[in-house]
Amino acid sequence: MPKLASYNGVIDSIENIKISPMSRAFLFSDSVYEVISFYKNEFIDFDRHLDRLKHSLYETKIECSIDECSAEIKKLLNESNLKNGYVYFQVSRGIDSIRSHLFDESECERFGFIEKFSFLNQSPLKVMLVDDIRWQRCDIKSTSLLGNVLQMNDAKGMNCNEIIMHKNGQLTEGGASNIFFVKNNEIFTPELSPNILPGITRHQVIEIIKEKEFDFVEGIFDVNDLKEASSIWFTSTTKGIIEVKEIVNLDTKINPKCELLRICKEAFASKYFS
């Protein structure tokens, strides 16, 4: 069956979607996006994803009806035959008559597609520690991802599946995920800042950690903190909770049988995928 897509509210096969080369998304990555998972035909934390999209639109001064976005995302799911997967949805500032860094008021451009995906039983990751070379507003979910792309592909050359980024030794996040680690039976994650995306799954996992009353700290952490970690894991919409098995350029003390990780993974799967 052809992959379904939506362009400004019109649903069609993705092969039939035509986007102007003068789209500011194409010319400048002047656009924001969300990836929203669904399981058994139900979106997971839909409202929180919409709130984050609204934040991204506000911070980038892109004018677009959040109600239209919501309706188009739901329409994609309703018109597909998929049970489990995710919707990618992107909003750009629109189409220019001439290429210019300056923008005028124009009609926003909305594009999305729906993808089948299995969220459970993903294999542990081999990762690489890299400098964070991205722009300074990573709290905005922008399609401007060249820094991520370059670093992820450098890691691919080392047979890695993901990266852990840092700015001058200070931990930020993964290439497409947030990071948690365990040390001395305490769970840690970098606190939110302009360098860190407020991940929806990050929020869900923090809720579980607090429900379980585990010792937990959000703060500023150094790369060296990972050396003593007994467990390191990522969270994201498509990864859920997935552990790190090795950092190729850092010696660690990772224990693949970390009890805190096991409990968090089981609670997460039970809450969102049962």
Summary keywords:
single chain; D-amino Acid Aminotransferase, Chain A, domain 1; D-amino Acid Aminotransferase, Chain A, domain 2; 8-stranded mixed beta sheet; 6 helices; globular
Provide a descriptive summary of the structure in words.
The structure is a single chain. The protein is α+β, with helices and mostly antiparallel strands and 274 residues long. The chain folds into 2 domains: 4-116, Aminotransferase class 4, branched-chain amino acid transferase, N-terminal domain (D-amino Acid Aminotransferase, Chain A, domain 1), CATH 3.30.470.10; 125-272, D-amino Acid Aminotransferase, subunit A, domain 2 (D-amino Acid Aminotransferase, Chain A, domain 2, Alpha-Beta Barrel). It contains 6 helices and 14 strands. The chain has helices at 24-28, 46-60, 66-79, 146-156, 200-211, 259-272; strands at 4-7, 10-13, 31-39, 42-43, 85-92, 109-116, 125-131, 162-167, 170-174, 178-183, 186-190, 216-219, 231-236, 240-247. The protein has an 8-stranded mixed sheet with strand order 9-8-7-14-13-10-11-12. Strands 2-1-6-5-3-4 form a 6-stranded antiparallel sheet. The chain is globular. The chain starts with a strand and ends with a helix. The mean pLDDT is 96.
Derived structural class? alpha+beta
Helices and strands, in order, run as: EEHEEHHEEEHEEEEHEEEH
Integer average pLDDT:
96
Strands, total number: 14
Helix percent reads: 25-40%
What would you say the CATH architecture of the largest domain is?
Alpha-Beta Barrel
What is the spatial order of strands in the main beta sheet?
9-8-7-14-13-10-11-12
Write down the Rg: 19 Å
What is the overall number of helices? 6
Q: How many distinct folded domains? A: 2
CATH class of the largest domain: Alpha Beta
Instruction: Let me know the largest β-sheet.
Output: 8 strands, mixed
Residue stretches low in confidence (pLDDT < 50, at least 5 long) are none
